[in-house]
Amino acid sequence: MYIIYVIKSEVDSRLYVGFTENIERRIKEHNSGKTRSTKGYVPWIIVYKEEVNDRSLARKREKYLKSGCGKEFLKKILYLQH
What we know:
GIY-YIG endonuclease
């Protein structure tokens, strides 16, 4: 099982999209500064996640969510959650 996740920085509200097999471990890595691209914006909170069974599908979904259309999708669903 792979989890595509979106985390939000509590510092400046920026979003980060990734995928993993172990979401708890991955969030700890982001919040402990082990991930270069996110260490300057700690702490991070999970704001969205999806599960898929296939690694290639997870990678495709991650790439989509990082695209312009994917960012618009995330803005819509994250706005609706508030």
